[in-house]
Structure formats: C-alpha cells, structure tokens
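Appendix B. One record, verbatim.
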Amino acid sequence: AVSEYCQQLESVNFGGCELLTDSSVVALAKHCPQLVSTSFSGCDRLTDRSIMTLAEHCPLECVGFNRCAQLTDGAVMALAKYCSQLRVLAFAGCPFLTNASVSALQQGCPKLLHVSGIPGFPGGGN
C-alpha cells in the first residue's frame, strides 16, 4: 500500500521487519522507481527475488541486506548487472554469499566505496 502512494520515495528502512516478504519488496520496487537507498537488514524471509527486482527497477546507490540469510550470489550478480551507481553495499551475516560475485561487482559497480559481508572483496569479508 505504501508503494502505491509514495512513487517519489527515494529511501526506505525496513530493518528488523522480520515478517516482510518478497511480494512486498517486489511491489515496492515496481511502484517506487526512484529508490536509491534501502535497508532490509534482518528481514530474513527475503530471497534473491527481492534484490533482483529492486536492481532491475530502481537506481540503487546504497543497499543494506545484513542478516538476510536466504540471499545468494544471484542477488549480488543482479546488483552488479543493473546498479552501476552503487556506492555502499552491506551483506554481513548472509552465509550463502561467496567470492563468485566479486569480479561482477568490480566490473559492474565502479563507484563502490564500501562493501561488507562478501568474502574476497577487498575489505568485504564477514
């Protein structure tokens, strides 16, 4: 409901909203195409689907998905593919992330200043 009425929204923080689902994040991404900053830390029901949809629909610059335990390298790869303006990326406490997405981030996101939670990324280990 928020997403339908706040189409100019640029920043959201749903940190700790443990019951938040992919369908809610997908609706947010599709209705709020100006989102540049998001935090979903601790929203452990979210899957790659949420991040992939956000990446495809929003010009993200700063994202936080710490302790979103279901996320995989697929989510990071989508960010690298669609979000070339990314500056800050936080995935600490996401156990399924590996160094497989490091080169994609380095090539697709040249403006990255800070990365946490991605093994193998300079300064990005858990």
